[in-house]
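Archive entry. Fields below.
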Amino acid sequence: MLAELAQTLDRTARRKLGRSLSIREVDAGSCNGCELEIHALSNVFYDLERFGLRFVASPRHADVLLVTGPVTHNMREALERTYRATPDPKWVVAVGDCALDGGIFAGGYACVGGVSEVIPVDLHVPGCPPSPTALLQGLIALVEQSTHPRE
Amino acid sequence: MPFLSALTDRGRRIEAHRLWPRIVVDVATWRQAIVGLAAGEATLLGLWCDGEAVHMGLIAGAKILVISLPVPKRRYPSVGLSHAPALRLERMIRDLYGLEPEGLPDVRPWIDHGRWGISQPLGARRPPPATGSAYPFLEAEGPPLHQIPVGPVHAGIIEPGHFRFTANGETVVRLEERLGYVHKGIEGLMAGAPPERAARLAGRVSGDSTVAYAIAFAQAMEAALEIKVPRRAIWLRALMAELERLANHFGDIGAICNDASFSLMHAHCGALRERVLRASEACFGHRLMMDRVVPGGTAVDLEFDATAVIRKLIDTVRRSFPELIELYDETASLQDRTVGTGFLHSALARQYGAGGYIGRASGRSFDARRTPGYAPYDELKFEIPVRKEGDVDARIWIRIREVEQSLALIEQIINRLPEGSIRSELDPAGKAKGNCEGLSLVEGFRGDILAWVRVDNDGILAHAHLRDPSWFQWPLLEAAIEGNIVADFPLCNKSFNCSYSGHDL
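PREDICTED_STRUCTURE:
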């Protein structure tokens, strides 16, 4: 399963990105569960970097924002500013059930809701939290569907 | 007479509060408790509000007491004024409920960043102040000093928070934390929620401790409702809790070394962590074991070949981990970074009641599995590793020793796992037991988690408070970093690994 996914991702990433896609992760209110699994993408079992996909330390170096959490009101501005700091063209992937619509945290005074309420979202990877395999599948889907990233 | 017993006699006992007593006191007794706390006669377990009263959890030895002060005038004598560990908790209560702690030395908002469109969301629900103003950070003055602002969005894949460093050249003179960015309003969301939904919320206060939180919440509910949990469920919970501890400690040991640019350790520990998560999924159907512990028992039983999976995991770890310990112990360049770095004085650890590896690396041997203790740990053999050095190195060693203890615990659990059912009905007679309260203290990987619940007349969860261990650890990071170089902050921070989400609630 993993080997198959890896092959697909490798092929697509090579073709469409020339082995280079930089990802900036933004926790906009998550419980940290999604971060743990995103982290796992870098362990030796998944080793995301072999496909040319890598996590970068600044949005200014990023092609993709990987955003988790129900966006809290206290993180809204930081998310907007991170989005603005990411150069075009760029993609946004919302990760986890909370990132879709606030999930279990929706409805309170403290959360805005899903990521798409704050910035445009290209793809949503469901799960609580999504497994590394699901995250890999999501990244493949992103790379495959988007010959023309958001301008 | 011991401090807590003397206090107990001075208040009105609430009968339906279990497993430990809660008493309602007057202002004079409240003040007496503060004096005792400040004198070190008890440790602060928590400080929370239910709208009507402010509650203070105290522990001395193995004795736990909750004292409650009704606040009809929305004011109470500040605990933080004399006992600093209460400061941020009081600022949070002030932000959420609008209670005024009289004498509170720091009245800056803490969780409320002025962005909710409302203030005192769990209290009077007032309109927010008309103009927002910048958060006034504490000052450090002098010609060579400069400030470094970091966050809330950090460079790594971690949670958001803001750190304001004041540095003299490379040396950190002052660090001030600004938290609250991931405040999700969980206390408000839990009030009135059905138990299943409340349990799911509790399991998402801090995702890395989902099992520990779910156990803490379940134990509090079960204490309140006087539910007897099947023995097998209690043992399965401990199995999950120790798997969670293993996974997190592997993750931490690797990540701390990685912050000293020793990525080899990170790679190996990351692989071990992944193996634990895969074993967890094979046994319980979820890598982090979310929603597997529920009030009344567990939601799932072990898959049929699960013990074989766990034995294989233990075997793998026992074969590979000793080599990694040796690698850590014998790499001088790595030790050069960790030994003596981020020193936390034992007096501070004791004063703050710092739990987990932070307390235990600074001489505080507290572990909720032992004191006050809960099943099945009373039937299991384990040691609580303690060191006195208080540095990054000691916090790594505590984790290493705890990995060994957790392996031994897991082995004992699967060898002696009782047969039987895994879940009791929350409401067996079909009529909810009303007006009762429960308190629990559960040892997560980073320290003791306090859970307090009140169930109202109709069996509805009226209030829940969950206190993360990080409340008493974050402030100590500010102390531990002082005098270290800026470049060692990631190392210190990762060795603490406080929770943002658990703290921000």
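CURATOR_NOTE: The CA atoms of residues 111 and 347 of chain B lie 28 Å apart.
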